[in-house]
Structure formats: structure tokens, C-alpha cells
Design a protein that fits this description.
Number of strands: 7
Strand order of the largest sheet: 3-2-1-4-5
Radius of gyration: 27 Å
Oligomer: single chain
Largest sheet: 5 strands, mixed
Shape: flat
Order of helices and strands: HHHHHHHHEEEHEHEHHEE
Structural class: alpha/beta
């Protein structure tokens, strides 16, 4: 049985510390006492229990100096614990339960048979099944269609379109970010193809078509919108959003079903943002995520040199070495996660 006396003593000291004037010193004393309680256990090596991990996740939310007093584990470990907890949380609430039953195996085989024998699309097979008295949804038919290799000519036509019109193309998409309480935040953004510049972004807990339309209006308040805007088949990007895009004298282009490569610029920025920022932090809430992304987008647009264009999206001036006495210094960006380099006099 796990002894609760160290934790009762810890709670008593925490309650006493709340009545002190200096709240930050109380937090520092609390986290140091928690680590001492771990070291006083009778194991050769301190063993961290789930309650210890929950304690540090809570400290990550309550105190801005939590990493300064953390000596028993690395801050990156706390971030990894949060990711693991997020996966366990959604795995638990996503367990199979009451809901729509799976269609019979006979119907699944019939869908594949119709596709292989005739080369029919999902809509054609859906209509044929209705004539046989088999009631299934169109999305269900699409799910069980056999996967076909992409048409090389279609890829070539799409790449030609992107290459010839890259200066007049914008792309929008959503990115999902978990918070410390395992909630989901949705990041909408719009990126220019020619410069890779992030034109606009925003964060919300509940995205709707009306909210996306407002973001499109805020993206181009004083400048002309691009000629084309690419988006995927998300249900939010429906007829209302397409009508709002057309009102900006822009043509909406919808990607094919399950073809994220057709919106590769947006997908690539999502991966870049995760690798350079979101994989290293635990997001607290909506306002916290907005501050983080504002800092990162400023760095991405003005400082970060793209490997293909050899320049920052908003343009970065060349800095030749002014004299032999100067040296290269690093300017921290995004809270020290990234850096920009420039010349400066030796200290």
C-alpha cells in the first residue's frame, strides 16, 4: 500500500504557503518539497508515480517558473507525459459503444465487387445499391471502395497548375492542438503559395462556417485576395464558405477526396509549426496558443529562411560583414526555440 503521509505533509505545507505574501516563493517551496518526498523513498533510484506526473502537469499550468525548480526530470519529459496522457484520454473516451452498427460483410464485398467489375464511382454504386433495396450512406460506400493508384497525368496537371499560378494562389486549412486539460483547439490559417507567407491565422474551440468567413474577410481588409484559394473537403468549407470566397473575386478550388498532397503547402506548414514550436510546449488555453503562434508566425514570416526560395516569406535583407572586428551572434526567437543570426561587435 502506498504511504500517503508524504503527500498529506505536502498538502499542509502548500495550504500554509498560500497565506504568505510572496506567492511565487510559495510555489518554489512546494515543488522543492515534492521532489524531496520522491528522493526519500526506499528505492535505489527515485520512482515517479502517476500522482507525481500529475503534480508536474499542474505546476506547468500554475507557475511560470516551473522549469527553473525542476531538477528531478527534464522539462521535455513533462511535455512527453502530457502527450501520452492525451493519447490515453482520447483512447478511453473513443472506445466502441452504442452507435451505428457496421454493415454486413456481404454488402462490403458487393461494393468492392461492383467497383472492380465496372470501375464505378461511389455515387454510381450507391445508386445501384438503392435499386437492390440496400440502404447505406454515400460516405460508407466511399470508405469501402478499393484504393486506386493516383493517375500520373492528373498529378502532372495539378503540379502544372500550381507552378504556373503560384503567385496567385492561397491555401487555407485547419490544425488541431491539444491543451493541458486534453481539450482541442482549432487553428485556421491562410498561406500564400508564391512567398509561403502566413497571411492570417486565428484560434477557436468551435469552428463554424460563419467563423471561417469572418477570418477570410480579416485576411484581406486592404489588399486584393489571390485569384485562387485551395481548401480540402472539410464540412466547414461548404457552399457558404465558397460563396464568401467568390465574393472576394476569388475562385475556390476544392481538393480531391483523401488527397492531402493537393494542398501540400498548407500541410507542410502544419508539420513545420509542430516540429519547431508545438512539439516543445504544453498549451494552456486559447489565449496561450494565440500568443505562441503570434510569436512563431512573426519569426516565420520575417526571419526564417525558406530552403527553396532562399529568403524569408516577407523578405529579409542581405547583411554583408561590415568589418573584420564583428562576429556572428544569435538572436533568440520563439522563446529561444529558434534563432536568427546577424553581425555584431565583439563584446
Amino acid at each position: 500500500m502506498v504511504s500517503v503521509l508524504p503527500y498529506l505533509s505536502l498538502i499542509v505545507h502548500f495550504v500554509q504557503s498560500l497565506f504568505r505574501r510572496k506567492h511565487e516563493h510559495a510555489i518554489v517551496e512546494l515543488v522543492l518539497r515534492q521532489q524531496l518526498a520522491v528522493y526519500h523513498r526506499t528505492r535505489p533510484r527515485p520512482h515517479l508515480r502517476p500522482i507525481d506526473r500529475a503534480f508536474w502537469l499542474a505546476m506547468r499550468r500554475w507557475s511560470s517558473r516551473w522549469a527553473d525548480t525542476l531538477v528531478i526530470v527534464k522539462p521535455e519529459t513533462v511535455v512527453r507525459w502530457h502527450r501520452a496522457g492525451f493519447r490515453l484520454y482520447w483512447r478511453r473516451i473513443s472506445r466502441s459503444g452504442p452507435g451505428r452498427p457496421r454493415i454486413p460483410a456481404e454488402v462490403r464485398d458487393l461494393i468492392r465487387r461492383m467497383a472492380e467489375e465496372n470501375g464505378w464511382s461511389a455515387r454510381r454504386i450507391h445508386a445501384e445499391l438503392e435499386k437492390l433495396g440496400i440502404c447505406v450512406g454515400l460516405a460508407t460506400v466511399s470508405r469501402y471502395l478499393p484504393k486506386r493508384p493516383p493517375d500520373p497525368e492528373q498529378r502532372l496537371r495539378w503540379r502544372t497548375f500550381l507552378r504556373n499560378h503560384r503567385e496567385a494562389i492561397g491555401a487555407m486549412d485547419f490544425m488541431v492542438v491539444p491543451t493541458v486539460r486534453f481539450e482541442l483547439l482549432y487553428v485556421w490559417f491562410l498561406i500564400e503559395h508564391g512567398s509561403r507567407r502566413i497571411v492570417h491565422f486565428n484560434v477557436t474551440k468551435s469552428p463554424t462556417s460563419a467563423w471561417v468567413i469572418q477570418q477570410l474577410r480579416e485576411s484581406f481588409p486592404y489588399e486584393l485576395a489571390p485569384r485562387y484559394v485551395i481548401h480540402d473537403r472539410d464540412s466547414i468549407f461548404g457552399a457558404r464558405v465558397d460563396a464568401a470566397i467568390q465574393a472576394l473575386d476569388t475562385e475556390p478550388i476544392q481538393t480531391a477526396y483523401r488527397c492531402p498532397w493537393q494542398n501540400a503547402y498548407a500541410e507542410r506548414w502544419v508539420g513545420t509549426c509542430r516540429r519547431e514550436l508545438l512539439d516543445h510546449v504544453v498549451v494552456l488555453d486559447e489565449q496561450h496558443l494565440k500568443r505562441l503562434l503570434s510569436t512563431y508566425v512573426g519569426y516565420y514570416n520575417k526571419d526564417r529562411v525558406h530552403t527553396r526560395t532562399r529568403d524569408a516569406p516577407s523578405g529579409r535583407q542581405l547583411e554583408p560583414r561590415p568589418s573584420s572586428t564583428v562576429q556572428v551572434i544569435a538572436l533568440p526567437r520563439v522563446g529561444g526555440l529558434q534563432h536568427r543570426y546577424t553581425w555584431a561587435e565583439a563584446a
